[in-house]
Amino acid sequence: MNDIPVQDRRFTARRQAERLLSGGRPQTVRESLAELAALADGPYPLDEPTDRYGDGIVRTLERRTADLLGKPDAAWFPTGTMAQQAALKTWADTHGPVVAMHPLAHPEVHERRAHQVLSGLRSVPQATGPQQPTAAQLAALDEPFDVLMLELPLRDAGFLLPSWEELSALYDFAADRGLPVHLDGARLWESAPHLGRSLPEICARAGSVYVSCYKSLGGHSGALVAGEEEFVRRIKVWRHRYGGRLWQQWPAVLSALAGLDRELPRLPDYVAHAKVVAAALAGTPGARINPEPPHTHQFQLWLPYPAEQLIEAGHRQAEEQGVSLFGGWWEPGPQPGAAMTEVTVAADALEWSAEDVTEAMTAFLALL
């Protein structure tokens, strides 16, 4: 069994497990295709011609997303990396190429700094450490910038959000200086409960808002950027230049529409239950939850064991006990032998009580 590649073993173990705590059950291509075909009976415009270069069902998703975020229009992109670049490049055309973003921001950490290498943009670090920037920190920067980018939530800091008062102060800072604000809202959908405001209220003062179609909605792929009509018209020019004007995109778009119907209404329940799950996990000897309590339905769990050992225990628990608690483990911090996993509380986790989590964690630790 140990000779099987880790990803293949995890896929098989999680598919066979009777109960899952973090994330969803992985699917085969056949299962994904059947799920997509089942949408034929749903309330979607399937009797119109397939989309061509962004019309038809693509426009349906763009208009619906714009309405949900309180913006006049939106543009679909095949990837979030392309969406981010196009949005920042569009702002650079009118305001300048220097973007203030967190050192842990997605373009800096997970996009191979494409905004710098491909788009000729330059970033100014907003703050140090795993925290959201404050208006005071931005005011203290000794280097000017043209665009303010905020990642809500800040994934690599633990899916961390500011308070509504802190976010309002950041908007005030940008407005006072005439700076456009771009929201990296890949996971913005689940941020409303912590901020205590609706999505349109959260986005109202941002010039552009990027959201993902698969990170929380469960779509196959894709992203959207919402904003004023003129901004969206110009961002589509950069979408074309970056190679994002695809001939047909209806499978991904259809899955995103289904995600808006299925997952978006359930996210508040996921966020609320994440606090229950996190509190139960916090009772594990040596465990650390970040942030505590969670700001969204995702959070970090740290344990004082090597990642390899935790991965093996997780595989064994799924294979031998039919319980899969977590996905992957990493050792990203400076402390040797301490590993972290990202916990995602979704539909499967709603069946878990705090007592269930505690009991399963006891069995997990016994395998270490």
TrEMBL record:
Keywords from the UniProt entry: Pyridoxal phosphate
A GO BP annotation: glycine biosynthetic process
SUPFAM superfamilies: PLP-dependent transferases
Organism: Kitasatospora griseola (Streptomyces griseolosporeus)
Entry annotated with the keyword Thylakoid: no
Any single Pfam family the record assigns to this protein: Beta_elim_lyase
Protein family according to the UniProt entry: Belongs to the threonine aldolase family.
Record protein name field: Threonine aldolase
GO cellular component, one term: cytosol
Cofactors: pyridoxal 5'-phosphate
